[in-house]
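PT: before anyone asks, these are the final sequences, not the draft ones from last week. 174 residues across everything. Please model them as a single complex and drop the result in this thread when it's through.
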Amino acid sequence: MVLKGKVIDAPSVLRGVPPERLLADEMLGRLARYLRFVGLDTAYARGLTDDRIARWASEEGRVLLTRDRGLAARVPGAVRIRARDIAGQWRELRGSFSDLPGTVRFARCTRCNGEVRRVTLSPDAVEPVGAPVARIATGLPLYRCTACGHVYWSGTHTLAVQRALDRWAAESGR
Ligand SMILES: [Zn+2]
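LR: through. Structure below.
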């Protein structure tokens, strides 16, 4: 890897805690959603030129995740992902960031990457979005995206995501 003209040892730079801010390229939309599920601020570059992606990563201090070898080579600190399947992509990322979180957290909107916060909503507001009113009445926490307003709660979908994360963690021997 070349960073500011100096050759550095990639593993020593990348191993450990994942960066606070990530930018996934167009080919990694599913990976971006999973990263948001575990609470990582992950922007998604769709329909942008390589120049704009490189500038975005630089301006916001985001680590670029990309399947494009050329793009990975020109953006300092970028992580190139080779796998096409989500399990393989997650495994590769775990190879770069051993402390990649593996638990679903309601911190980032999986739709828009907005910040998600705990909220209290009345049944009138909950019913239209399909939330389980009876479970909410007995204390099921609700969360809402501060950017797009999407409402989240722990349910069958998040359970399925957590199972997938657990499976990938077990497969890589953790
Ligand atoms: Zn949102």
